[in-house]
Amino acid sequence: MRNLRHIVYDLLIEKGFAEHTAKYLNMLALLIALLLVAFIIDYVTKRLLWRFFSGIAKRTKTNFDDILISNKLPRNIAHIIPLIILIEFVPQVFSDFEYAENIIEKVLKIVAILLTLRIIRSFLNSIKDYLKTLARYKDKPIDSYIQVFLIFIWLLGVFAIFSILTGVTFIKFALTLGTASAVILLIFKDTILGFVASIQVSINDMVRIGDWITFEKYGADGDVVEINLATVKVQNWDKTITTIPTYALISDSFKNWRGMMASGGRRIKRSVIIKTSTIKFLTDTDIEELKKIQLVSKYLENASASIAKYNATHHADKSVLINGRNLTNFGVFRKYLQTYIENHSAINKDMTLMVRQLEPTPQGIPMEIYAFSSDIRWQNYEYIMGDIFDHVLASVKYFDLEIYELAVASPQV
Protein backbone atom coordinates (compact mmCIF):
# COMPACT_ATOMS: atom_id res chain seq x y z
CA MET A 1 0.00 0.00 0.00
CA ARG A 2 2.86 2.35 0.79
CA ASN A 3 4.37 1.84 -2.68
CA LEU A 4 1.02 2.61 -4.28
CA ARG A 5 0.49 5.57 -1.98
CA HIS A 6 3.86 7.08 -2.80
CA ILE A 7 4.10 6.12 -6.47
CA VAL A 8 3.90 9.75 -7.60
CA TYR A 9 6.23 10.82 -4.81
CA ASP A 10 8.86 8.29 -5.89
CA LEU A 11 8.63 9.37 -9.53
CA LEU A 12 9.05 13.02 -8.58
CA ILE A 13 12.06 12.28 -6.39
CA GLU A 14 13.64 10.41 -9.28
CA LYS A 15 13.04 13.46 -11.47
CA GLY A 16 14.93 15.59 -9.02
CA PHE A 17 12.06 17.39 -7.23
CA ALA A 18 12.62 18.50 -3.68
CA GLU A 19 11.17 16.18 -1.03
CA HIS A 20 8.78 18.82 0.34
CA THR A 21 7.48 19.67 -3.16
CA ALA A 22 7.16 15.98 -4.06
CA LYS A 23 4.99 15.35 -0.98
CA TYR A 24 2.58 18.15 -1.90
CA LEU A 25 2.33 17.11 -5.53
CA ASN A 26 1.86 13.47 -4.53
CA MET A 27 -0.96 14.43 -2.14
CA LEU A 28 -2.60 16.60 -4.81
CA ALA A 29 -2.43 13.84 -7.44
CA LEU A 30 -3.89 11.24 -5.07
CA LEU A 31 -6.65 13.65 -3.98
CA ILE A 32 -7.68 14.36 -7.60
CA ALA A 33 -7.68 10.63 -8.39
CA LEU A 34 -9.76 9.86 -5.27
CA LEU A 35 -12.29 12.61 -6.04
CA LEU A 36 -12.55 11.43 -9.63
CA VAL A 37 -13.20 7.83 -8.54
CA ALA A 38 -15.75 9.00 -5.95
CA PHE A 39 -17.53 11.15 -8.57
CA ILE A 40 -17.73 8.25 -11.05
CA ILE A 41 -19.01 5.83 -8.39
CA ASP A 42 -21.53 8.42 -7.22
CA TYR A 43 -22.82 8.91 -10.78
CA VAL A 44 -23.05 5.18 -11.51
CA THR A 45 -24.68 4.39 -8.15
CA LYS A 46 -27.19 7.20 -8.61
CA ARG A 47 -28.19 5.93 -12.07
CA LEU A 48 -28.49 2.31 -10.87
CA LEU A 49 -30.61 3.23 -7.85
CA TRP A 50 -32.83 5.49 -9.93
CA ARG A 51 -33.47 2.68 -12.41
CA PHE A 52 -34.04 0.21 -9.59
CA PHE A 53 -36.60 2.39 -7.82
CA SER A 54 -38.26 3.42 -11.10
CA GLY A 55 -38.63 -0.24 -12.08
CA ILE A 56 -40.23 -1.06 -8.75
CA ALA A 57 -42.52 1.97 -9.02
CA LYS A 58 -43.80 0.81 -12.42
CA ARG A 59 -44.52 -2.72 -11.21
CA THR A 60 -46.28 -1.85 -7.94
CA LYS A 61 -49.78 -0.46 -7.46
CA THR A 62 -48.91 1.75 -4.49
CA ASN A 63 -47.62 5.27 -5.14
CA PHE A 64 -45.31 5.25 -2.10
CA ASP A 65 -42.27 4.35 -4.22
CA ASP A 66 -43.11 7.19 -6.63
CA ILE A 67 -43.19 9.55 -3.67
CA LEU A 68 -39.80 8.24 -2.50
CA ILE A 69 -38.35 9.14 -5.90
CA SER A 70 -39.97 12.59 -5.93
CA ASN A 71 -38.45 13.29 -2.49
CA LYS A 72 -34.98 12.32 -3.84
CA LEU A 73 -34.43 9.42 -1.45
CA PRO A 74 -32.56 7.25 -4.04
CA ARG A 75 -30.30 10.19 -4.95
CA ASN A 76 -29.40 10.78 -1.29
CA ILE A 77 -28.74 7.07 -0.67
CA ALA A 78 -26.45 6.99 -3.72
CA HIS A 79 -24.04 9.37 -1.95
CA ILE A 80 -23.33 6.84 0.81
CA ILE A 81 -20.89 4.61 -1.13
CA PRO A 82 -18.70 7.49 -2.45
CA LEU A 83 -18.63 8.98 1.05
CA ILE A 84 -17.50 5.66 2.56
CA ILE A 85 -14.73 5.49 -0.06
CA LEU A 86 -13.60 9.01 0.79
CA ILE A 87 -13.57 8.28 4.53
CA GLU A 88 -11.60 5.08 3.91
CA PHE A 89 -8.92 6.49 1.60
CA VAL A 90 -8.49 10.08 2.85
CA PRO A 91 -6.00 8.91 5.54
CA GLN A 92 -3.91 7.40 2.72
CA VAL A 93 -3.98 10.62 0.70
CA PHE A 94 -3.00 12.85 3.65
CA SER A 95 -0.66 10.39 5.35
CA ASP A 96 2.20 12.89 5.17
CA PHE A 97 0.04 15.76 6.47
CA GLU A 98 -1.35 14.66 9.82
CA TYR A 99 -2.91 18.00 10.74
CA ALA A 100 -4.80 18.25 7.42
CA GLU A 101 -5.79 14.58 7.75
CA ASN A 102 -7.53 15.24 11.09
CA ILE A 103 -9.39 18.26 9.70
CA ILE A 104 -10.55 16.41 6.55
CA GLU A 105 -11.68 13.40 8.59
CA LYS A 106 -13.79 15.66 10.83
CA VAL A 107 -15.27 17.37 7.77
CA LEU A 108 -16.16 14.00 6.21
CA LYS A 109 -17.76 12.80 9.46
CA ILE A 110 -19.85 15.98 9.57
CA VAL A 111 -20.83 15.44 5.92
CA ALA A 112 -21.82 11.86 6.83
CA ILE A 113 -24.08 13.19 9.61
CA LEU A 114 -25.66 15.76 7.29
CA LEU A 115 -26.21 13.10 4.63
CA THR A 116 -27.88 10.86 7.19
CA LEU A 117 -30.15 13.73 8.19
CA ARG A 118 -31.05 14.35 4.54
CA ILE A 119 -31.91 10.67 4.02
CA ILE A 120 -34.10 10.63 7.14
CA ARG A 121 -35.78 13.88 6.07
CA SER A 122 -36.51 12.51 2.58
CA PHE A 123 -37.97 9.35 4.08
CA LEU A 124 -40.14 11.21 6.61
CA ASN A 125 -41.37 13.65 3.95
CA SER A 126 -42.26 10.66 1.77
CA ILE A 127 -44.29 9.17 4.62
CA LYS A 128 -46.01 12.53 5.12
CA ASP A 129 -46.89 12.89 1.42
CA TYR A 130 -48.09 9.29 1.25
CA LEU A 131 -50.34 9.59 4.32
CA LYS A 132 -51.88 12.74 2.84
CA THR A 133 -53.07 10.67 -0.13
CA LEU A 134 -55.05 8.37 2.19
CA ALA A 135 -58.62 9.51 2.90
CA ARG A 136 -58.49 8.74 6.63
CA TYR A 137 -55.42 10.94 7.14
CA LYS A 138 -56.27 13.91 4.90
CA ASP A 139 -57.74 15.96 7.76
CA LYS A 140 -55.03 15.03 10.30
CA PRO A 141 -52.11 17.38 11.21
CA ILE A 142 -49.47 15.07 9.71
CA ASP A 143 -47.12 18.03 9.16
CA SER A 144 -46.92 18.66 12.91
CA TYR A 145 -45.85 15.12 13.75
CA ILE A 146 -43.27 14.97 10.97
CA GLN A 147 -41.85 18.32 12.06
CA VAL A 148 -41.50 17.06 15.65
CA PHE A 149 -39.51 14.03 14.45
CA LEU A 150 -37.37 16.23 12.22
CA ILE A 151 -36.60 18.67 15.03
CA PHE A 152 -35.60 15.80 17.30
CA ILE A 153 -33.40 14.25 14.59
CA TRP A 154 -31.79 17.60 13.73
CA LEU A 155 -31.03 18.24 17.40
CA LEU A 156 -29.27 14.87 17.63
CA GLY A 157 -27.36 15.73 14.45
CA VAL A 158 -26.31 19.14 15.78
CA PHE A 159 -25.17 17.54 19.07
CA ALA A 160 -23.13 14.96 17.12
CA ILE A 161 -21.49 17.68 14.97
CA PHE A 162 -20.53 19.73 18.04
CA SER A 163 -19.19 16.57 19.62
CA ILE A 164 -16.95 15.97 16.60
CA LEU A 165 -15.73 19.57 16.49
CA THR A 166 -15.01 19.83 20.20
CA GLY A 167 -13.74 16.28 20.76
CA VAL A 168 -16.17 15.82 23.65
CA THR A 169 -18.12 12.54 23.69
CA PHE A 170 -21.74 12.71 22.57
CA ILE A 171 -23.16 11.65 25.95
CA LYS A 172 -21.02 14.14 27.86
CA PHE A 173 -21.99 16.90 25.44
CA ALA A 174 -25.69 16.08 25.88
CA LEU A 175 -25.36 16.07 29.68
CA THR A 176 -23.66 19.46 29.54
CA LEU A 177 -26.57 20.84 27.54
CA GLY A 178 -28.93 19.55 30.21
CA THR A 179 -27.64 22.24 32.53
CA ALA A 180 -28.69 24.84 29.96
CA SER A 181 -32.21 23.43 29.61
CA ALA A 182 -33.80 26.68 30.81
CA VAL A 183 -32.19 28.56 27.94
CA ILE A 184 -33.21 25.85 25.49
CA LEU A 185 -36.81 26.00 26.72
CA LEU A 186 -36.80 29.77 26.25
CA ILE A 187 -35.39 29.51 22.71
CA PHE A 188 -37.80 26.76 21.65
CA LYS A 189 -40.82 28.06 23.56
CA ASP A 190 -43.01 28.51 20.49
CA THR A 191 -42.00 25.12 19.11
CA ILE A 192 -42.77 23.36 22.40
CA LEU A 193 -46.10 25.17 22.76
CA GLY A 194 -46.94 24.31 19.16
CA PHE A 195 -46.05 20.67 19.70
CA VAL A 196 -48.24 20.40 22.81
CA ALA A 197 -51.05 22.28 21.07
CA SER A 198 -50.92 20.09 17.95
CA ILE A 199 -51.22 16.97 20.10
CA GLN A 200 -54.20 18.39 22.00
CA VAL A 201 -55.85 19.57 18.77
CA SER A 202 -55.45 16.10 17.28
CA ILE A 203 -56.54 14.15 20.37
CA ASN A 204 -59.58 16.35 21.02
CA ASP A 205 -60.37 16.58 17.29
CA MET A 206 -60.73 20.35 17.59
CA VAL A 207 -59.66 21.25 14.06
CA ARG A 208 -59.14 19.26 10.89
CA ILE A 209 -57.76 20.28 7.53
CA GLY A 210 -60.75 21.39 5.47
CA ASP A 211 -62.74 22.70 8.46
CA TRP A 212 -64.35 26.11 8.20
CA ILE A 213 -63.32 28.15 11.25
CA THR A 214 -63.91 31.72 12.38
CA PHE A 215 -61.20 33.24 14.57
CA GLU A 216 -62.10 36.89 15.17
CA LYS A 217 -58.93 37.70 17.14
CA TYR A 218 -56.78 36.97 14.08
CA GLY A 219 -59.31 38.03 11.45
CA ALA A 220 -59.60 34.48 10.10
CA ASP A 221 -62.81 33.27 8.46
CA GLY A 222 -62.41 30.41 6.00
CA ASP A 223 -61.10 26.89 5.43
CA VAL A 224 -58.10 25.38 7.24
CA VAL A 225 -55.60 24.43 4.52
CA GLU A 226 -52.57 23.48 6.62
CA ILE A 227 -51.78 22.52 10.21
CA ASN A 228 -48.11 22.33 11.18
CA LEU A 229 -46.07 22.55 14.35
CA ALA A 230 -45.99 26.33 14.66
CA THR A 231 -48.90 27.67 12.62
CA VAL A 232 -52.34 26.96 11.21
CA LYS A 233 -53.06 28.44 7.77
CA VAL A 234 -56.61 29.54 7.00
CA GLN A 235 -57.70 30.51 3.50
CA ASN A 236 -60.32 33.23 3.97
CA TRP A 237 -63.32 33.60 1.68
CA ASP A 238 -61.60 36.48 -0.11
CA LYS A 239 -58.73 34.04 -0.89
CA THR A 240 -56.30 35.75 1.49
CA ILE A 241 -54.29 33.56 3.87
CA THR A 242 -54.33 34.12 7.64
CA THR A 243 -51.66 32.45 9.76
CA ILE A 244 -52.60 31.56 13.33
CA PRO A 245 -50.21 30.21 16.01
CA THR A 246 -51.10 26.58 16.69
CA TYR A 247 -51.18 27.09 20.45
CA ALA A 248 -53.81 29.84 19.96
CA LEU A 249 -56.31 27.08 19.14
CA ILE A 250 -56.21 25.91 22.75
CA SER A 251 -55.57 29.24 24.47
CA ASP A 252 -58.19 31.37 22.69
CA SER A 253 -61.79 30.94 21.61
CA PHE A 254 -62.73 30.27 18.00
CA LYS A 255 -65.71 28.91 16.10
CA ASN A 256 -65.56 25.67 14.11
CA TRP A 257 -68.42 25.23 11.63
CA ARG A 258 -67.80 21.50 11.12
CA GLY A 259 -70.88 20.53 13.15
CA MET A 260 -73.07 22.64 10.91
CA MET A 261 -71.45 21.21 7.78
CA ALA A 262 -71.91 17.64 9.02
CA SER A 263 -75.51 18.16 10.14
CA GLY A 264 -76.81 18.82 6.63
CA GLY A 265 -78.42 22.12 7.61
CA ARG A 266 -77.33 25.70 8.13
CA ARG A 267 -79.20 27.81 10.65
CA ILE A 268 -81.47 30.65 9.64
CA LYS A 269 -82.19 32.91 12.63
CA ARG A 270 -83.53 36.28 11.61
CA SER A 271 -86.47 38.43 12.63
CA VAL A 272 -88.59 41.34 11.47
CA ILE A 273 -89.98 43.90 13.91
CA ILE A 274 -93.73 44.47 13.68
CA LYS A 275 -95.22 47.78 14.78
CA THR A 276 -97.23 47.18 17.95
CA SER A 277 -99.84 49.74 16.87
CA THR A 278 -100.83 47.62 13.85
CA ILE A 279 -101.69 44.48 15.88
CA LYS A 280 -105.45 44.00 16.27
CA PHE A 281 -108.27 41.51 16.83
CA LEU A 282 -109.84 40.15 13.66
CA THR A 283 -113.49 40.72 12.84
CA ASP A 284 -115.58 38.19 10.91
CA THR A 285 -115.09 40.31 7.82
CA ASP A 286 -111.31 40.29 8.32
CA ILE A 287 -111.33 36.53 8.74
CA GLU A 288 -113.32 35.98 5.56
CA GLU A 289 -110.89 38.16 3.68
CA LEU A 290 -107.86 36.28 5.05
CA LYS A 291 -109.40 32.94 4.07
CA LYS A 292 -108.47 33.82 0.52
CA ILE A 293 -104.83 33.17 1.52
CA GLN A 294 -104.49 29.45 0.81
CA LEU A 295 -101.80 28.63 3.35
CA VAL A 296 -104.01 29.73 6.28
CA SER A 297 -107.53 29.19 4.88
CA LYS A 298 -107.96 25.74 6.48
CA TYR A 299 -106.45 26.95 9.74
CA LEU A 300 -108.87 29.90 9.83
CA GLU A 301 -111.88 27.66 9.20
CA ASN A 302 -110.95 25.30 12.03
CA ALA A 303 -109.91 28.07 14.40
CA SER A 304 -113.06 30.14 13.68
CA ALA A 305 -115.33 27.14 14.33
CA SER A 306 -113.50 26.30 17.57
CA ILE A 307 -113.59 29.90 18.80
CA ALA A 308 -117.27 30.35 17.89
CA LYS A 309 -118.18 27.19 19.82
CA TYR A 310 -116.17 28.34 22.83
CA ASN A 311 -117.71 31.82 22.83
CA ALA A 312 -121.24 30.38 22.50
CA THR A 313 -120.65 27.97 25.38
CA HIS A 314 -119.34 30.75 27.61
CA HIS A 315 -121.96 33.30 26.45
CA ALA A 316 -119.30 35.79 25.36
CA ASP A 317 -120.67 39.23 24.49
CA LYS A 318 -119.20 39.75 21.03
CA SER A 319 -120.63 43.23 20.73
CA VAL A 320 -117.26 44.12 22.27
CA LEU A 321 -114.55 42.39 20.29
CA ILE A 322 -112.22 41.80 23.23
CA ASN A 323 -114.67 39.48 24.96
CA GLY A 324 -114.18 35.74 24.66
CA ARG A 325 -111.58 34.21 22.42
CA ASN A 326 -110.37 35.95 19.29
CA LEU A 327 -107.95 35.69 16.44
CA THR A 328 -105.37 38.43 15.86
CA ASN A 329 -103.73 39.44 12.61
CA PHE A 330 -100.38 38.98 14.34
CA GLY A 331 -101.18 35.39 15.37
CA VAL A 332 -102.52 34.50 11.91
CA PHE A 333 -99.43 36.00 10.32
CA ARG A 334 -97.25 33.86 12.59
CA LYS A 335 -99.23 30.76 11.57
CA TYR A 336 -98.88 31.75 7.92
CA LEU A 337 -95.10 32.04 8.20
CA GLN A 338 -94.90 28.70 10.03
CA THR A 339 -96.84 26.98 7.24
CA TYR A 340 -94.84 28.80 4.58
CA ILE A 341 -91.51 27.64 6.10
CA GLU A 342 -92.79 24.07 6.53
CA ASN A 343 -93.66 23.96 2.83
CA HIS A 344 -90.47 25.63 1.60
CA SER A 345 -88.43 23.22 -0.54
CA ALA A 346 -85.04 24.53 0.65
CA ILE A 347 -85.69 24.03 4.37
CA ASN A 348 -84.45 20.92 6.21
CA LYS A 349 -87.62 19.40 7.72
CA ASP A 350 -85.66 17.04 10.01
CA MET A 351 -84.19 19.91 12.06
CA THR A 352 -85.70 22.55 14.34
CA LEU A 353 -88.27 24.65 12.53
CA MET A 354 -90.38 27.36 14.14
CA VAL A 355 -91.65 30.91 13.89
CA ARG A 356 -91.71 32.60 17.27
CA GLN A 357 -92.62 35.88 18.88
CA LEU A 358 -89.76 37.48 20.81
CA GLU A 359 -89.83 39.87 23.75
CA PRO A 360 -91.32 43.27 22.88
CA THR A 361 -88.86 46.09 22.26
CA PRO A 362 -89.29 49.88 22.14
CA GLN A 363 -89.49 49.57 18.35
CA GLY A 364 -92.09 46.79 18.28
CA ILE A 365 -92.43 43.03 18.55
CA PRO A 366 -89.86 40.86 16.71
CA MET A 367 -91.20 37.92 14.73
CA GLU A 368 -88.33 35.45 14.31
CA ILE A 369 -87.88 32.60 11.86
CA TYR A 370 -85.72 29.82 13.29
CA ALA A 371 -84.98 27.05 10.80
CA PHE A 372 -82.18 25.31 8.88
CA SER A 373 -81.56 25.45 5.16
CA SER A 374 -80.96 22.09 3.48
CA ASP A 375 -78.12 23.60 1.40
CA ILE A 376 -75.14 24.60 3.56
CA ARG A 377 -73.10 26.25 0.80
CA TRP A 378 -72.68 29.93 1.65
CA GLN A 379 -73.87 31.41 -1.64
CA ASN A 380 -76.93 29.16 -1.83
CA TYR A 381 -77.67 29.69 1.87
CA GLU A 382 -77.74 33.45 1.43
CA TYR A 383 -80.01 33.07 -1.59
CA ILE A 384 -82.45 30.85 0.37
CA MET A 385 -82.56 33.23 3.32
CA GLY A 386 -83.01 36.23 1.03
CA ASP A 387 -85.82 34.47 -0.83
CA ILE A 388 -87.65 33.70 2.43
CA PHE A 389 -87.42 37.22 3.80
CA ASP A 390 -88.33 38.78 0.46
CA HIS A 391 -91.58 36.90 0.81
CA VAL A 392 -91.98 37.81 4.49
CA LEU A 393 -91.53 41.53 3.85
CA ALA A 394 -93.95 41.49 0.92
CA SER A 395 -96.64 39.49 2.75
CA VAL A 396 -96.87 41.64 5.90
CA LYS A 397 -99.33 44.12 4.34
CA TYR A 398 -101.86 41.37 3.57
CA PHE A 399 -102.40 41.00 7.32
CA ASP A 400 -102.75 44.75 7.96
CA LEU A 401 -99.40 44.78 9.74
CA GLU A 402 -96.45 47.12 9.30
CA ILE A 403 -92.73 46.65 9.79
CA TYR A 404 -90.94 49.13 12.00
CA GLU A 405 -88.74 51.63 10.17
CA LEU A 406 -86.70 54.23 11.99
CA ALA A 407 -87.94 57.67 11.03
CA VAL A 408 -85.13 60.11 10.32
CA ALA A 409 -85.94 63.79 10.79
CA SER A 410 -85.42 65.90 7.68
CA PRO A 411 -82.65 68.48 8.04
CA GLN A 412 -83.93 71.99 8.63
CA VAL A 413 -83.17 74.47 5.94
SSE layout:
Layout: H1 2-5, H2 7-14, H3 19-59, H4 64-70, H5 73-78, H6 80-93, H7 98-132, H8 142-166, H9 170-178, H10 181-187, H11 189-203, E1 212-215, E2 220-227, E3 231-236, E4 241-245, H12 248-251, E5 255-256, H13 258-263, E6 266-274, H14 284-290, H15 294-313, H16 329-342, E7 354-357, E8 365-373, H17 378-395
Antiparallel strand pairs: 1-2, 1-5, 2-3, 3-4, 6-8, 7-8
Helix pairs in contact: 2-3, 3-4, 3-6, 4-7, 6-7, 7-8, 15-16
User: What is the residue-averaged pLDDT?
Assistant: 82
Biggest sheet statistics: 5 strands, antiparallel
Largest sheet: spatial strand order: 4-3-2-1-5
How many E strands? 8
Describe it.
The protein is α+β, with helices and mostly antiparallel strands and 413 residues long. It folds into three domains: 2-133, no CATH class; 202-262, SH3 type barrels (Roll); 266-399, no CATH class. It contains 17 helices and eight strands. The strands form two sheets. Strands 4-3-2-1-5 form a five-stranded antiparallel β-sheet. A three-stranded antiparallel β-sheet has the order 6-8-7. α3 (19-59) runs antiparallel to α6 and α6 packs antiparallel against α7. It comes from Winogradskyella flava. It holds the Pfam family MS_channel_2nd. Residues 190-258 form the Mechanosensitive ion channel MscS domain. It is found in: Cell inner membrane.
Tag the structure with descriptive keywords.
single chain; alpha+beta; SH3 type barrels; 3 domains; five-stranded antiparallel β-sheet; 17 helices; 8 strands; rod-shaped; transmembrane; transmembrane helix; membrane
